[in-house]
């Protein structure tokens, strides 16, 4: 029996790609092992969104260089593979497989080539008009499942490497997405997360021609599925109908991750984001006016070329105005092939760090205040597991908040009984900046 080890970096798309890669390998007779030194084949599914992420895979490859002599095969998958291509063989000569996500459908053939002793196997074509579909997905979480609805990205944000690493947009048919959802429901999954670099630009390639809101409504009707989430959205393609769909059906989670990147319209223009601050705020207003209480989160980049102190102040003011429940913030990182490379005027690293720290401090204060307002309220938590250290069940609300709680009748998991995969009404008793804690209401 041949064995493989896989380590995954990056976003949920990558995590889900790995689930499909693992399923494919298992179906080809491989066995997964937990440590690289036990494996015949060591795979890294990589991310290149920022330079730091990209460097991780080269560190890993460095660590295992010495293993080369022991007959192991090494493969680099994902975004760094697509971006660096055959250059990886030069930097790390012990690597024998380099494949980007648009080539995973060919993985079985690539494995055969590897096994027959081909030293350098590549899957680097982006010339692919189909999303990767496989019956062999090995899902990691028994209650929440990812479904890819669209792959690739047709936007050209000036800082972003994704169009180069994941290629042009390819939507799956609504029929195949719904079939997958029904199958997951049959298998007992309660929650589905729809994935895509830009789910809002989903367009059903079959004659039905559904847009994203139509698909979302249909997902909310799948028997047995109790929560549907989606990520990630692009403000330009985010239409009000999506909010209307969420308003109509509580199965659709009341959380929207709407990356803004900057609060300054002039930075947004240079980023080629295709919306102004005002246009973004209009989408925020739709959410605030919705009947349901929609949680809003975002991504922000500080130190984009030419970002002035005033631009940055606009971003800080945006945080005050929107009152996000959470945000991911990053220092701008130059990426190969991207348009922003042309925009000289690089902001010093310590200035980026200063802005990042100010931004995060401001957001932390907002979250502490917003979360503390929830003390005393009752919300529904889906149980994801148990934290031995805190002796709490790990729960998540429809708004995607972590709500850990104690359960008087079942304080801990027993051999024959766990609360994982069940839902409880929980009274919030404590609030921190990043999570809530409470007690089940029995
Ligand atoms: N530098 C810093 N952050 C980036 N992101 C994307 N590209 C870059 C880059 N070159 C951030 C954006 C995006 C998130 C996934 O990563 O905020 O929304
Ligand atoms: Fe990283 Fe972007 Fe690739 Fe996801 S799509 S793995 S975030 S580079």
Question: In whole angstroms, how far apart are the ends?
Answer: 49 Å
Largest sheet: 6 strands, parallel
Provide the structure class.
alpha/beta
Ligand list? 5'-deoxyadenosine, iron/sulfur cluster
Gross morphology: globular
Strand content: 15-25%
> Helicity, in percent?
25-40%
Number of strands: 19
Which stretches are low in confidence, meaning pLDDT under 50 for 5 or more residues running?
Answer: none
Order the strands across the largest sheet as they lie in space: 2-1-3-4-5-6
Helix count from the secondary structure assignment: 13
Mean pLDDT, rounded to whole units? 96
Radius of gyration: 23 Å
Write structural notes for this entry:
With 442 residues, this protein is of the alpha/beta class. The protein is 32% helix and 22% strand. The protein has a six-stranded parallel β-sheet with strand order 2-1-3-4-5-6, sandwiched between helices. Strands 16-15-18-19-17 form a five-stranded mixed β-sheet. The longest helix has 24 residues. It binds 5'-deoxyadenosine and iron/sulfur cluster. Iron/sulfur cluster binds next to helix 1, helix 3 and helix 6.
């Amino acid at each position: 029996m041949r064995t493989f080890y896989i380590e995954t970096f990056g976003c949920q798309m990558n995590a889900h790609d790995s689930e499909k890669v693992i399923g494919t390998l298992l179906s080809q007779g491989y066995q997964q092992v937990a440590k690289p030194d036990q494996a015949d084949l060591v795979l890294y599914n990589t991310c290149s969104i920022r330079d730091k992420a990209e460097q991780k895979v080269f560190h890993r490859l460095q660590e295992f260089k010495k293993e080369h002599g022991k007959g192991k095969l090494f493969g680099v998958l994902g975004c760094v593979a697509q971006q660096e291509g055959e250059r990886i063989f030069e930097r790390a000569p012990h690597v024998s497989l380099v494949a980007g996500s648009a080539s995973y459908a060919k993985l079985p053939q690539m494995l055969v080539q590897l096994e027959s002793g081909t030293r350098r196997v590549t899957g680097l074509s982006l010339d692919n008009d189909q999303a990767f579909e496989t019956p062999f997905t090995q899902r990691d979480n028994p209650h929440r499942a990812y479904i890819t609805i669209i792959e690739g990205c047709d936007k050209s944000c000036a800082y972003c490497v994704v169009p180069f690493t994941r290629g042009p947009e390819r939507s799956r048919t609504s029929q195949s997405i719904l079939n997958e959802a029904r199958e997951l429901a049959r298998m007992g999954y309660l929650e589905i997360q729809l994935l895509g670099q830009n789910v809002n630009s989903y367009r059903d390639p079959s004659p039905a021609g559904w847009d994203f809101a139509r698909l979302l409504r249909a997902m909310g009707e799948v028997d047995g599925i109790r929560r549907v989430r989606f990520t990630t959205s692009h403000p330009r393609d985010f239409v009000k109908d999506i909010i209307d769909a969420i308003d109509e059906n509580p199965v659709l989670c009341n959380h929207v991750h709407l990356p803004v990147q900057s609060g300054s319209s002039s930075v947004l223009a240079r980023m080629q984001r295709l919306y102004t601050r005002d246009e973004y705020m209009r989408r925020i207003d739709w959410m605030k006016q919705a009947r349901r209480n929609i949680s809003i989160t975002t991504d922000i980049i500080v130190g984009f070329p030419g970002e002035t102190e005033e631009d940055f102040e606009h971003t800080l003011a945006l945080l005050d105005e929107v009152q996000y429940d959470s945000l991911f913030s990053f220092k701008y990182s130059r990426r190969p092939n991207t348009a922003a490379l042309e925009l000289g005027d690089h902001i010093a690293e310590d200035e980026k760090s200063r802005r990042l720290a100010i931004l995060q401090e401001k957001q932390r204060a907002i979250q502490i205040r917003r979360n503390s307002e929830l003390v005393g309220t009752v919300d529904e938590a889906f149980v994801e597991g148990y934290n031995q250290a805190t002796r709490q069940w790990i729960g998540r609300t429809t708004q995607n908040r972590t709500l850990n709680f104690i359960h008087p009748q079942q304080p801990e998991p027993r051999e024959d009984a766990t609360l994982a995969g069940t839902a409880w009404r929980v009274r919030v008793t404590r609030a921190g900046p990043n999570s809530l804690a409470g007690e089940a209401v029995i």
